[in-house]
Amino acid sequence: MLLWIPLLICGQTPVEINFSNREALALEITVKDLYIGLVNPATGPIEIPGAIEGKIYANTNWVLISSTQEDFISLEGNTIPINRLKWRVGGKDYSPFKMGDVHLLEGNPTSEDGMYFSVDLMLDLKWKDEAGEYSTKLMFTVMKQ
Questions:
Q1: Mean pLDDT in the chain?
Q2: Sequence spans of domains, the chain
Q3: How many helices (H) and strands (E) would you count in the chain?
C-alpha cells in the first residue's frame, strides 16, 4: 500500500522589474524682453553684464544653444548685422552671434536645484548705422549633448 504524503518545498521565483528613466531637460530664462536703452556709437561698444540669466535642469549631458534667423531690424526697415552683438559666458572673450546656431555652454547632469548661468552681451554700433529703434529675437534651447 502506498501512502501519499504531500511535501512542502520552499521555492524561489524571480520577478523582473523594468522601467525607463526618460531624459529630462528644462530651461528657465529670467529675462524675456531686454531693452538696452539709448546707445551712442560715439562712446564705443556698450557692455551689458548678466543680460541674460537662467537655470538649466538636466539629468543627462546637455548643451545650451542660441539661434537667430535675422539681423537687427528697425521700424523703418534698416538693418544692423547680428554679428555686432557679441556674447560671453564666465568672463571669457566675447564672440559674435551669427545666423543660425551658436554654442553657448555645455555641462553634465545638474542637481535638482538646476545650474545657474549668465550671458554677458556687448553691442557695437557704428557711425554709419541709421538712427532708429532696432530689435531681433534670440532663441535659447537646451538639448542633449
A1: 91
A2: 44-144
A3: 0, 11
Cα–Cα distance between 52 and 85 in angstroms, integer? 13
Q: Is residue 4 pLDDT above 70, yes or no? A: no
Calculated CA dihedral for residues 47, 125, 139, 21, nearest 10 degrees:
-30
Other beta carbons within 10 angstroms of residue 71's beta carbon come to: 17
pLDDT of residue 32: 80
- Dihedrals φ, ψ of 122, to 5°? -140, 130
Instruction: Please provide the distance, in angstroms rounded to a whole number, between the alpha carbons at the two ends of the chain.
Output: 76
Q: Which of 128, 141, 97, 120 is nearest to 51 (CA)?
A: 120
**Which tens digit of pLDDT belongs to each residue from 68-109?**
999 999 999 999 999 999 999 998 899 999 999 999 999 999
Residue (of 27, 23, 92, 22) closest to 64 by Cα position: 27
| Domain 44-144: which CATH number of 2.60.40, 2.30.29, 1.20.120, 1.25.40 | 2.60.40
